[in-house]
Amino acid sequence: xxxxxxxxxxxxxxxxxxxxxxxxxxxxxxxxxxxxxxxxxxxxxxxxxxxxxxxxxxxxxxxxxxxxxxxxxxxxxxxxxxxxxxxxxxxxxxxxxxxxxxxxxxxxxxxxxxxxxxxxxxxxxxxxxxxxxxxxxxxxxxxxxxxxxxxxxxxxxxxxxxxxxxxxxxxxxxxxxxxxxxxxxxxxxxxxxxxxxxxxxxxxxxxxxxxxxxxxxxxxxxxxxxxxxxxxxxxxxxxxxxxxxxxxxxxxxxxxxxxxxxxxxxxxxxxxxxxxxxxxxxxxxxxxxxxxxxxxxxxxxxxxxxxxxxxxxxxxxxxxxxxxxxxxxxxxxxxxxxxxxxxxxxxxxxxxxxxxxxxxxxxxxxxxxxxxxxxxxxxxxxxxxxxxxxxxxxxxxxxxxxxxxxxxxxxxxxxxxxxxxxxxxxxxxxxxxxxxxxxxxxxxxxxxxxxxxxxxxxxxxxxxxxxxxxxxxxxxxxxxxxx
Length: 483
Description:
Layout: H1 37-65, E1 69-73, E2 78-83, E3 89-92, E4 102-106, E5 112-120, E6 128-132, E7 154-159, E8 168-178, E9 183-186, E10 198-200, E11 206-213, E12 226-230, H2 234-242, E13 263-264, E14 272-276, E15 281-282, E16 289-297, E17 302-308, E18 314-319, E19 325-329, E20 338-343, E21 348-356, E22 363-371, E23 382-388, E24 402-409, E25 414-420, E26 426-431, E27 437-441, E28 451-456, E29 461-469, E30 476-482
Parallel strand pairs: 13-16
Antiparallel strand pairs: 1-2, 1-4, 2-3, 3-6, 4-5, 5-6, 7-8, 7-10, 8-9, 9-12, 10-11, 11-12, 14-22, 15-16, 16-21, 17-20, 17-22, 18-19, 18-21, 23-30, 24-29, 25-28, 25-30, 26-27, 26-29
């Protein structure tokens, strides 16, 4: 997603694709004319047996664990979860069910059940538990023994990538263990939609809760660096849930970690000088240093942000007023310097992350924020938050999901339409009173995939705006604004 961070998932955030561990391969020297056929068959059979053992492990883990892996659906997102008690306690990510209340659970056999959110993690712990109503004999996945996970062991992920491939199974290894943050790094393929799903060992035991991935292309999927919250964090959390001590509402948390407040900066103000050192905040996904800044922006305002340095490789990440990602950039300003140019989707406080491309890279930098001249105040004609979810209406041309909204416009009126999402690549279109397409867009600028349209209305009447995903895989939350 870009770049550096696949934001904790909208539609959730994890698995699909296969990062399969290598099957056993037997290599031999070239076969001589005098090679004994019996000897060749013996070597060949050993390879086949080794391969079958690995396949048998994969099959056994999937058949044992998959009945207890569920899809978690809400009005705004979907993810995955693990049944951990026969009476229906389901473990998932807090960001999947952050609105609380009731959610829908889809079991592996297709049954759809209602569940209540009963507890959230504290102090940035991205965990939640939901309780399925009226159940007492559900399959479960046991927790692995604390401290049992080792780098190099096999790891298995099951979940619902992109909200449409329930029960997907991927295989890899434990690549790294971050003891400080309680994270397990794995190369088992993890993609949007798998947030909250299980990471398993070869015994089918839960070793982690999949929560995020590291990737460098907007809308991109797994590049072999995924993260799961270690099962070592679970006993204390689950005890708090069972005893009724866990928070019943989602706790505020920074998507980047750290506890430093952003430094306020002004658009069109003097350049800001900064210094990244080992005293700076650390981005959890790649251990790179960063500083936080904030500024006030207006809807429709075009801004350009540049971060330059001769000592580090600058990297910029911009978050909107709702703390959802708007844009990221690495080398947009040339010579490894970073630049974001984007039209702001809403009024409010924006957060800017001044970061480095590489881990633990120290050095000085400058930051410059420029904005277009203020324009006459505009009011929102239409402002909607929603989600594209499985089962919704689809366009016959490409089977992509869409939602339709309407507003009343007048001839000669200028409107700006923005559609933003961090879960899928947005596509927006406007149709006039005569049912003819006026304009469509899938990228508002070079540095963001959010969609933006500026249109002068040709006639007075009712206009239709279509919120759409760029392709059939698009799922997740969005914000639509018409001004």
